Amino acid sequence: MKDFEDIYNAYAKQVFRICLGYTNDADKAKDLVQETFISVWKNLSSFENRSLMTTWIFRIATNNCLRHLEIEKRKERTLLPSNLMLDDTTGKEDQIQFLYKCISELAETDRIIISLDLEELPQAEIAAIVGLSHSTIRVRVHRIKDKLKQKFQEHGQFS
Questions:
Q1: Which CATH class is domain 4-155?
Q2: Would you write out the chain's pLDDT as a tens digit for each of its 159 residues?
Q3: How many other β-carbons are positioned within 10 Å of the β-carbon of residue 128?
Q4: Domain ranges, ordered by start, for the chain
Q5: Eight-state DSSP code of residue 49
Q6: Using alpha carbons only, what angle is made at residue 142 by residues 137 and 147, rounded to the nearest 5 degrees?
Q7: Are the CB atoms for 8 and 33 separated by under 8 Å?
Q8: Which residues are in the RNA polymerase sigma-70 region domain (predicted)?
């Protein structure tokens, strides 16, 4: 899977969902995906197989997202109402939008953890990406899911 196009096709959708979890903005997420794969392209020859390709790519993506969030914090901006994109229907698309909105409100590390968990990465791999122990990841995933479930119940999206 050394061919860049194969790598891009294999991981772009997952990287997009991770970035969307950080930004809650599809256009910004697309930009972050591009930045991630530019970094992958530039550094592919130096990838040493010390970790899985997914771990390496998702770490680049999370670093890009964290850098983006840090830059955004420094900018002055007018915020749009957070419920602008949501309506009160309970359709699947609305639930997905609400989920990403809720994820974007989590603390940075929790966003990384749950985004990677939603991509069905093994918790041991998430631990390697985040730099926490496997048992800590297991506990954090459980707590994050409880928080998200509570937000869904409060919003009437989940019974």
A1: mainly alpha
A2: 458 899 999 999 999 998 988 888 889 999 999 999 999 999 988 888 888 888 899 999 999 988 888 887 766 544 434 443 444 444 677 788 888 888 888 888 898 899 888 888 889 989 888 888 999 999 999 999 999 888 888 877 554
A3: 19
A4: 4-155
A5: S
A6: 120
A7: no
A8: 7-71
